[in-house]
Amino acid sequence: MTEQVTPLVEMRNISISFGGIHAVENASVDLFPGEVVALLGHNGAGKSTLIKILSGAYRRDGGEILINGEDADIRNPRDAKKYGIETIYQTLAVADNVDAAANLYLGRELKTKWGTLDDVAMEASAREVMGRLNPNFRRFKEPVKALSGGQRQSVAIARAILFDARILIMDEPTAALGPQETAQVGDLVKELKRQGIGIFLISHDIHDVFDLADRVFVMKNGKVVGHARTEDVTKDEVLGMIILGKVPPGAVAGPGAVVA
Amino acid sequence: MADMTQSNSTASPKTEKTGSISRFISATELDTRLLGMVGALLLIWIGFHILSGGLFLTPRNLWNLSVQTASVAVMATGMVLVIVTRNIDLSVGSILGFSGMIMGVMQAEILPQLLGFEHWATWIVTLLVGILVGGAIGMLQGSIIAFLNVPSFIVTLGGLLVWRGGTWFVTSGRTVAPMDSTFRLMGGGTSGSIGATWSWIAAIVACVAIVAAILNSRHQRRRFGFPLRPVWAEYFLVALGCVVVVGFVAVVNSYPWPVNIARNYADANGITWPDGGLFISHGIAIPVLMALAVGAVMTFIATRLRFGRYVFAIGGNPEAAELAGIKTRWVTVKIFTLMGVLCAIAAAISTARLNAATNAQGELDELYTIAAAVIGGTSLAGGVGTIAGAMLGALVMQSLQSGMVLVGIDTPFQRIVVGVVLVVAVWLDTIYRARAK
């Protein structure tokens, strides 16, 4: 039934290699509007590399990317943003030395009629967005360096929301967070999903994402082992995909599947 | 989140005295680091005043100090942006020398043939050519750094040699003099100062600007319902700003022209020479006005324009800046171009002051410029620095040098002291930053 709907993102047969090593080989993934897709695999499985091709941080060697069924030309992060793709990185999300408002608007600052930065207006809308997201957040004047991991993460997520992202990529979004903050991010993901935003969750820990995701893609050694709807498989079966590359009956095998 | 509500509550129970000081500082939103620098500067001044037997804090010495600081202060404003983006520019002294030599040749040898000797447009054509040369050199170096990925340390180390060699080559090592008389005004001196009346007018303009800036920020904060500073704090800031401005102008206005120059002026204008001598004020020197204007413009660029925001974001996290869609390479090219332009302006000031262009002009200035920026709080790790701090840093460096000359310390010891002070200043700053966290 999903076949009728055009995927929001379709990455077909993507390959990239660094110095002769195939980091990603012939990988295909897709994402539909209002869907949460988890990309799972060990460290070095190629999931982050694959997704960085979508966010424009790397340029692919082969394959194609379709956004809403149309060929997309993504060469750098600016191109990706034009297609409504926003990325929330685990580590390099924010510029530490400037304040929250400056980070929210980095690259797309509001300007006054004189062409100068409209810091006051930016701070006002930062307060508004952050108020919806994280009502306890009050440290608008301080460099982001002074904030906790969860607060920084909420700055990064607010940034994506502010720019009407249609496709959100979250790389290990809860890795640095405590349980309460993780739950908060989970609520946020559900809210974004309701708004029809497609979300890629990247994680090496299945427990972080299994309950949030509609589907999982598993990668191993740069190849897609397979994908499945989370209701069709168990956590243990997905773990088997991650560790052994073994595809359970409820999943669709990919090029990286181990033929038993 | 929880940790932030806690930090609010733990801030209040403190001893009465530190409480009132920190409340004062948070109400006025003064930069404590900058305050510390002002304190250090005052200490240096008072120390030298006592050691030199009352020679340092005189209108004459302070006026000279302001003129001597101008050239390095201009370059230090640009060096802040360079260092904030985790780069370095070792070539500024050589660019100063080269663009100074080009300006010297332009006004002393080329333009007199084209326009005639002492033509009114000589100075402006010369300055524009100098700025173009400086900007082009900066753009070239910036492009190599940004697009060919050669580290700025190496590119500008090469530039240090190349442009110094170029300075030598232009006139085969010959010193070019004299400069055009209008151009020479940029170097200060008796005629290169704006006099008492204009200095007071400048003071009034500056005070009005201070009041307007504070009113505007209050208005903006109210418009969006942000917390306002207490009214007494606003009055205090206005008063502080105006006292500094008025005090500075009062000092430079109480430094009179030397007797023989005043007498020549009186003779030339048919003024009878009064018994007590004629008191004509220097007022603010033109190079100082230029440096202050550059400081104001650079502060505006660094804090109010998108370009400045990008400079700091790149310094804080280059990858995040790149991923946010900032064209980081172009920003780098622009920074170095700006640095080149500032070197040319500094070159105009120093060639005009010397009334000659020599091939040694600006030697070691790169080190003084970097030292000024670093003493002024610019972090070599990137992302942190202020224009005002760097200019204050330049003033601290120059105060040390002038003070040591006044006290009669030998040249080798002067360098030793400056070197030690640089290291100690950065060490203290490291401690301060570690505490601030």
| Biggest chain pair interface | A-B, 38 and 31 residues
Q: In order across it, which strands form the biggest sheet of chain A?
A: 6-7-8-3-9-10-11
Number of helices of chain A: 8
N-C termini distance of chain A: 30 Å
Q: State the CATH superfamily name of the largest domain in chain A.
A: P-loop containing nucleotide triphosphate hydrolases
Q: Profile the largest sheet of chain B.
A: none
Can you tell me the CATH topology of the largest domain in chain A? Answer: Rossmann fold
Describe the structure.
The complex is a heterodimer of chains A (260) and B (437). Chain A is globular and about 60 Å long. Chain A starts with 8 loop residues before the first strand and ends in a 7-residue tail after the last strand. Chain A is of the alpha/beta class. Chain A folds into 2 domains: 2-84 and 165-253, P-loop containing nucleotide triphosphate hydrolases (Rossmann fold), CATH 3.40.50; 98-163, no CATH class. Chain A contains 8 helices and 11 strands. In chain A, strand 7, helix 6 and strand 8 (198-203) form a beta-alpha-beta unit. In chain A, the strands form 2 sheets. Chain A has a 7-stranded mixed beta sheet, with helices on both faces. A 4-stranded antiparallel beta sheet of chain A has the order 2-1-4-5, with helices on one face. Chain B is an all-alpha fold and 437 residues long. Chain B has helices at 2-11, 16-28, 32-51, 59-84, 92-114, 122-147, 152-170, 195-223, 231-253, 259-268, 286-304, 306-316, 318-323, 328-354, 365-375, 387-407, 411-436. Chain B has 17 helices and no strands. Residues 1-16 of chain B have low confidence and may be disordered. Helix content of chain B is 73%, strand content 0%. Chains A and B meet through helix 2 and helix 4 of A and helix 1, helix 8, helix 11, helix 12 and helix 13 of B. Chain A: This is Sugar ABC transporter ATP-binding protein. Chain A: One of its GO terms (molecular function) is ATP hydrolysis activity. Chain A: Keywords: ATP-binding, Membrane, Nucleotide-binding, Repeat, Sugar transport, Transport. Chain A: InterPro entries: AAA+_ATPase (IPR003593), ABC_carbohydrate_import_ATPase (IPR050107), ABC_transporter-like_ATP-bd (IPR003439), P-loop_NTPase (IPR027417). Chain A: Residues 9-246 form the ABC transporter domain.
